[in-house]
Amino acid sequence: xxxxxxxxxxxxxxxxxxxxxxxxxxxxxxxxxxxxxxxxxxxxxxxxxxxxxxxxxxxxxxxxxxxxxxxxxxxxxxxxxxxxxxxxxxxxxxxxxxxxxxxxxxxxxxxxxxxxxxxxxxxxxxxxxxxxxxxxxxxxxxxxxxxxxxxxxxxxxxxxxxxxxxxxxxxxxxxxxxxxxxxxxxxxxxxxxxxxxxxxxxxxxxxxxxxxxxxxxxxxxxxxxxxxxxxxxxxxxxxxxxxxxxxxxxxxxxxxxxxxxxxxxxxxxxxxxxxxxxxxxxxxxxxxxxxxxxxxxxxxxxxxxxxxxxxxxxxxxxxxxxxxxxxxxxxxxxxxxxxxxxxxxxxxxxxxxxxxxxxxxxxxxxxxxxxxxxxxxxxxxxxxxxxxxxxxxxxxxxxxxxxxxxxxxxxxxxxxxxxxxxxxxxxxxxxxxxxxxxxxxxxxxxxxxxxxxxxxxxxxxxxxxxxxxxxxxxxxxxxxxxxxxxxxxxxxxxxxxxxxxxxxxxxxxxxxxxxxxxxxxxxxxxxxxxxxxxxxxxxxxxxxxxxxxxxxxxxxxxxxxxxxxxxxxxxxxxxxxxxxxxxxxxxxxxxxxxxxxxxxxxxxxxxxxxxxxxxxxxxxxxxxxxxxxxxxxxxxxxxxxxxxxxxxxxxxxxxxxxxxxxxxxxxxx
Length: 669
Ligand SMILES: *[C@@H]1O[C@H](CO)[C@@H](O)[C@H](O)[C@H]1NC(C)=O
Ligand SMILES: *[C@@H]1O[C@H](CO)[C@@H](O)[C@H](O)[C@H]1NC(C)=O
Ligand SMILES: *[C@@H]1O[C@H](CO)[C@@H](O)[C@H](O)[C@H]1NC(C)=O
Ligand SMILES: *[C@@H]1O[C@H](CO)[C@@H](O)[C@H](O)[C@H]1NC(C)=O
Ligand SMILES: *[C@@H]1O[C@H](CO)[C@@H](O)[C@H](O)[C@H]1NC(C)=O
Ligand SMILES: *[C@@H]1O[C@H](CO)[C@@H](O)[C@H](O)[C@H]1NC(C)=O
Ligand SMILES: *[C@@H]1O[C@H](CO)[C@@H](O)[C@H](O)[C@H]1NC(C)=O
Description:
- The chain is of the alpha/beta class.
- 33% of the residues lie in helices and 9% in strands.
- It has a 9-stranded mixed sheet with strand order 3-4-6-5-7-8-9-11-10, with helices on both faces.
- One 2-acetamido-2-deoxy-beta-D-glucopyranose (NAG) binds at residues 284, 286, 288-289.
């Protein structure tokens, strides 16, 4: 789920140590789109055990590191196969985990959209070929094969780490140079062609394979249909951010408008007042003001957080200010962390209500909509003090310091880890870097401040220039040209692409919708969409696409736990009346509408599947789109604004959701 789509943020800073520059993770802009995450965020409580059924077993497939080189070394890519209710004939549902460690997600395959689809579609598609009619019992209900796929360079799908060794920018960039969109798409193609399951007939030439994904994986599903229609018969492109864009200030436009609409307009005014103070401190190079503010958040009660933030005594003044910038980003932008998943029903609401409560404890503790804002009620220094107090209360609940950095490695030790000695720790650390790298070389998508908007919610240091500078600090000269968006946008057409047998679902208040065919931004093509299901192999006609926007829905809303589960009195929704001491989930009823549209489409598309020979030729074309990213001579690409920069991550970090459960205004006090 894109994309990961992509929020607060483990920030990462580069710092010089002795003669070599070392990478140092610091805050985070991370993406996590595993099904586990979506399901946990959907209910905001740990997903239940998987019906007491055995969990899908894990497998590895050997794949070339560089599909453009027949002599390439191989690496082992991880996947899981859930065959609990398998009966012959497919289809094969392929769930793409995307930009995170997929480990643990296998327990949730039978939940949410994946489980719902698997229960619905029986194994008669092979029979429809007229080949195995007699051996297939059409009356036996059951799940089809579910495959969970881990993306290269995430989790355990790591090429040999010896070359990464210690974390210098050049070494990391060299290690990640085959971490490209095209290489990772070809991984799936090669896997699908050679996949076997006992003696069953599972080849994509003989049974339909269906790609399921949201966010970056949603885009992968759409790209896959354009690229390899003989391998994947259909795709669910949920929140599929197929338009790569450098400067993505529109992300926060959606947040701004949602705050205003839900009665939190004065809270966003408070955020802007704080940002103004931050802007002044940076303009005046008032380091003690910034450091004192950060210290109020990290200590002394939050001393564990001290390791998370950095206060460097670097002699290089510019570096000190870069560190302050990244530390502040981590500290104050955490309030937007889960917005893309739950809108105003998560951290942002807790923060806004918390401001008012701390600002005036006599007012009670539940509903602070339409409150006046603390900068109106207090003088600036008192308001800033309150602001820091609320962040201090939020931080330890949002970020479990024992969970980050990985494997109990303290932040200060991260950059001294030697991958030759500690591979498992390195896998976790590289997984954290992996999406950041993708944004630096191919994605862009940076969530910048647009200071000409009166409702802008970010400090003005959130510029493309700074994002680009950070990339260079983390990955060295290999990324000096900035992300190269053009090849992928050109090859697939961005939000103008129109492959057949794809369903494009988006959430109305998902900021990532702005980079999909359902975008309503000024720079978007604003193509017409239809909910009329096109026949298999056809598009909806002209520029029209088969898609749906989920009212009130967030990122990947049609993939979560409640989707397709039928009526459940325990579901919560985004009604404003549910605010209070518990955080409601992101489920909205129209997520089911989207899900049912896709099911309806599969009822038409799957039976139309025809057996076909698979080409043995590689579909990886190194001349069209890069096989490697590590090319200092890469041509720069310009976005509409002619600016260069970097993308932010699509989503929040893994450790976050369990903490959310306990967050409530009461829990903070
Ligand atoms: C098909 O499965 C149903 C349900 O298990 C069973 O009652 C029926 O006898 C089976 N038919 C054949 C031809 O195997
Ligand atoms: C707060 O303001 C919104 C409009 O901004 C309004 O719809 C809502 O009813 C108000 N809520 C309360 C509790 O006053
Ligand atoms: C720096 O900020 C502090 C606290 O906000 C303030 O007291 C001080 O006057 C500022 N110093 C300068 C040089 O602006
Ligand atoms: C802002 O605060 C004022 C009181 O100062 C209140 O009347 C108004 O409804 C609030 N507006 C919003 C959008 O919260
Ligand atoms: C700001 O308000 C606080 C508490 O309300 C008070 O203690 C402080 O003296 C005020 N500061 C200024 C500069 O007015
Ligand atoms: C900032 O937002 C306005 C619309 O509010 C837009 O016209 C402008 O292009 C944006 N600026 C940049 C640098 O993208
Ligand atoms: C709703 O939640 C309660 C308490 O957890 C549970 O007992 C009940 O079965 C749930 N209802 C449904 C329809 O799942």
